[in-house]
Specification:
Layout (H helix, E strand, L loop, with lengths): L18 H4 L12 E7 L2 E3 L2 E3 L1 H8 L4 E8 L16 H13 L7 E5 L5 H15 L3 E7 L11 E3 L3
Parallel strand pairs: 1-4, 4-5, 5-6
Antiparallel strand pairs: 2-3, 6-7
Helix pairs in contact: 3-4
Amino acid sequence: MSTESEGPGREWVEPVPDQAWLAQHREDPLEPGMPIIDPHHHLWVMGDFTYMLPEFLADIRSGLTIEATIYMEAWTAYRQDGPEELRCVGETEFAYEQSLKTDGLVAAGIVSYANLRAPDALDRVLDAHVEAGHGRLCGRHQYRDEEDMRKQSVHVMFLW
C-alpha cells in the first residue's frame, strides 16, 4: 500500500511549508480547555512534503484539547492492485489503522471517496468502505467536477 497521494487529479504540486518561517511565531490557543473535534484533516505525502500521523499529532498536541478528528480522503494509501474501482478502499483501511494507533483520537470519523460516475460499482464500493471503516465511515466526498478535480471548489458530505 502506497501512502503517496497520487490519485486522480493529483498532478498539481502543493507548496512545501517553510518550517523555519513557521517557527518564528507561536500562537497560544484562545481557549485551551475547550474540547474540539477537528472536522476535516488529511494525511499524505506529496512530493517532498510529508504530513502523516507523527506530523499531525504534533500539531494537535500543541496546546489544543482535540477530542476526535474526522479524516477526509486525500488519495492516500490507495490499494496498488485489485479492481480499479475498489482501490480507493485502501485509504479507508489506512485511516482506520491511524485510528487504532491513536485509540480512536484520529479518524473517529472517515470520509471516503467513491466515484458516482460508476453507478454499477457504487454499492460494492460503498459496502467495502463501510466494512473497512469498522463503524467510522461517515460520508463520501463529492466534487463539483470529478473529471478535473483541480477545479474543485465545492464538496458535500453525505452522512448515513
